[in-house]
Amino acid sequence: MCGIIGYVGSRPALPILIEGLRRLEYRGYDSAGVALIDHGQLKVTKSAGRLSVLEQMLDFEADPTTGIGHTRWATHGAPTDVNAHPQQDASGNIAVIHNGIIENDRALRTYLERQGVVFRSETDTEVLAQLIGRFYEGNLEQAVRQALHDVSGAYAIAVVCSQEPNVIVAARKGSPLLIGIGKGENLLASDAAAILAHTTQVVYLGDGEMAHITPQHVRMTTLDAIPVTKNVEEIEWSLSEIELAGYEHFMLKEIHEQPASLETCLRGRIDLREGAVHLGGLRDCTRELTRAKRIILTACGTAWHAALVGKYMFEELIRTPTETEYASEFRYRNPVIDDGTLVIAVSQSGETADTLAALAEAKQRGALTLGVVNVVGSSIARETDAGVYLHVGPEIGVASTKAFTGQVAVLALMACYLGRRKHLSPAACTQFLTALNQIPDQIRQILQHEEEARAVAERYCEKENWLYLGRGYNYPVALEGALKLKEISYIHAEGLPAAEMKHGPIALINEGMPVVVVATAGTQYEKIISNIQQVKARGGSVIAVATEGDREIKRLAEHVLYVPDTLEPLQPLLAVIPLQLIAYHAAVLRGCNVDKPRNLAKSVTVE
Ligand code: F6R
Question: Within a domain: residue 192?
Fold first, then answer.
C-alpha cells in the first residue's frame, strides 16, 4: 500500500514530510520520494529502497514550505528510482504522487505518445502527470480536474506546481485521503498516523472529490467543480498509540495491548443488569436487522477468520442462516441477494479493495449493509448503511492481532444484540456478556505466560512445515494461528478443521512435525483428543492449547499452553493469544522483519 503526505504552511516542509513518511512505513513500500517547491523551482528527489536511502540524498538545511512525499508499493513498473513517485510532466514544473491504479493508462500513454510526449518511467502515475501538464494553463486545480475526467480507475493524488508555490491540489476516488487542518498550515495524508504529530483535526475527502489546499484555506469541490462542505472531525488516536513505547516491534506491542484495547471496545456497550447490548451505530436500523432472513459476512485474511467465528456465533445466538465469504470471491460470482439479506463487511482498515468491492456489489443488489471496522471515517465505514467500530486503536504491525480480537468481540456483541431481540433470554444474554467482560483480564493472565509460547517457538522454529488443527469455534483459531506464522516467519503452515485431517493432510505428518491443536474444553473436546492421538500415532509433535486444569491433555501433548475457561463461543478470543505469541517469537528467532514482512503491505487497497 502506498503512502501520501503533503504540507503547505510556514514551517520547513521537508522534516514534516520525512516524519510523515516514517509513520507510513508500516504500510509497506519499496521506494520513496519527495517534491518541494524551492524559490519557484520544483525539486524532486526519489529513490528505490528504504527511507534512509532517500534521507541521505536530501538537504535538510533547505527551507521550502510546500511539499509532497510518497512511499510506493510497486504495481505498474518495477521498484526503481525512475518509477518511484513523485512523477513529473514534460516541463518538469508539475509533480504528482498517487495511490491506486489508473486502469486506462495504456490508452492514455499511447494517446500522449502520439502527441510527442516521451515517457521516462513505466508508471501509470507519469501518465497522469503528463496529462495534467498538457492541460495546464496557469490553473493547477483546473488542469487536474480536466485530466481526471479522462481517467478511469482508483486514485488518491496530490499535485504541486512550481508556478503555484503555496498550493497542493488533491483528489480521491477509491483510495483514502484526508486533510489535516492546522493553524496557518494544512496537511494531507493517506493515513491519519502521518499527520497526527501536527493536528488531530481532519476532513475526509470523499470519492469523486477534490481539494485546493493552501496554508490558510481548504476548498473542496466535486470533480465537476460543485462546492462541497465538510465537517471537521477529531482523530481519536493519540501519538503514543502509534509509537513503539519501549516494545521491540509493533506486533508485540499490539499483542500486549489486547486487554486494554478490548476494554475500550466493550466500554459502554454492555449492560449486565438488563442483559442488554448498546450499539449506537445499529440503533436506526435495528428493525430491519432483526427482519434479515440471511446474513453474509464478507472479509479478507484475518478479518475473514474473525468473520468465521462470527458465523458460528450468529447461527448459535441469533439463529439466522449466516455465511462467511471471501470478499474477492463474493464480488465476482453471481451471488443471490435480496432485500432480506444483510451483508456485513469486516475490516480493520476499512479500505481493503476486495471488501469494498464486495460491499458495492451487495448494495447494488439491494442488501442492507453493515460495517465492522476499526478505522473511523474509512471508506467501508462511510459506504455501509450502518455499523459498529472496533475502537481498538491504530494497528500498525502488518500482522493483524488486536484487530482480530476486536472483530470477534464486536461480532459477539452483535450476536447478543440481535439474539436478544429474537429468542435469547435476558439471563442468557447476561451470562454471555459477563463472560465477555472477563475476557480482557483473562488475556492479561495468558500474557503472563509469554515465556512458554516463546519456548515452543524456540524448539520448533527451524521446522519448515506446521499444521494447525481446531474444531468448531476453534477451527477459525487454527486458520488464524497458521496465517500468523506463515506471514511473518515464512514457515509453511496450514490450518484445518481437525476432522478434515483424515481426508488427506494426515499424509503430511511425519516424525517431529509440529502440530498445533486448539483443544479447549467444550462440546467437541473428546473428538479433538482423538485427533491428537491420530497425530501422535504418526510421530507428530503436538503443541496443545488447552483449558486451565486439563490434566489429561498433559499426558498426550508434548507442550501445553493453558488458557482460562470461558464460554465456548468466546474461546477464540483467548486461544488465539498463545498462537500470536508463537508466531511472533518464531519470526524474531528466525531473524525476520516482524513488522514489515516481505511482500506484504498493511492495507491491500488494490486487487
Ligand atoms: C493478516 C492481515 C490480513 C488482513 C486482510 C484484511 O495478518 O492483516 O490478512 O486481515 O488484508 O485487511 P482489513 O482487515 O484491513 O480489511
Answer: yes
